[in-house]
Amino acid sequence: MMKELMRAAEVAKIALAEDDLKRLQTRFTAYLQWLEPLLEADCAACEPLLFGHGAPIVMREDKAEQCEMKDMGYSAANFEGGYYVVPPIIE
Fold this sequence. Notes:
Layout: H1 2-11, H2 18-40, H3 69-72, E1 79-80, E2 83-84
Antiparallel strand pairs: 1-2
């Protein structure tokens, strides 16, 4: 397990101290013990789910609607002169 953790850290390009590796090994061992019964479950007769809630997906038709320019600003944090004002991303 220690070898695999060291390899994963190397691939992720992170440096881990020896005590960090030992702590991770303990946590991964506990996780694998928790996961083991789940991996042993026979799911051959189960159909895969696309969505966990099971409710049908209702899609509406996408229609363009007319609206006043002043009404568009109600949904924006900052709307000036008919434009959405967003914070700059490049300084």
